[in-house]
Amino acid sequence: MKARVKWIEGAAMLGEAGSGHAVVMDGPPELGGRNIGVRPMEMLLMGLGGCTQFDVLLILSKARQAVTDCVVELTAERAETDPKVFTAIHVHFILTGRGLDPQRVERAIKLSAEKYCSASIMLGATATVTHDFEIRDRDAALASVEPER
């Protein structure tokens, strides 16, 4: 895997992945940034969310769980002194589907956290990483939406 980060100006950078995709990163205005992109540490946190979400959805699809939506909300705390590493990360899954089995969801999240998610395991070397989830029934959610008039 390769990546390249090119300085633009101030605290702005253009990150280019080996896959050919690019993303703008920037620092806060008080450190010379213009707030035109995500912070590099935010990228790490989002990477963790994407990595674990991919694993969980793959595991649940193999278990024939009918997931129709998945959102991963992450919160993190950082050390107060340099290096300001993540010290605590909480990963909250919101899964929507038909008849999702809570035990299968819990197992998928555990497998991702302990075996498959490289980002979670790597960040877990410096941070306490916790997980929880909620399941929303797709049919109940659709029934609660009023039809347009």
TrEMBL record:
Family annotation (Pfam families): OsmC
> Which top-rank group of organisms is this from?
Bacteria
Q: Which SUPFAM superfamilies match?
A: OsmC-like
Tell me where the signal peptide lies.
none
Q: Which InterPro entries match?
A: KH_dom-like_a/b, OsmC/Ohr_fam, OsmC/Ohrsf
* PANTHER family, per database record: PROTEIN YHFA (PTHR34352)
Protein name, as recorded = OsmC family protein
**Organism of origin:** Thiocapsa marina 5811
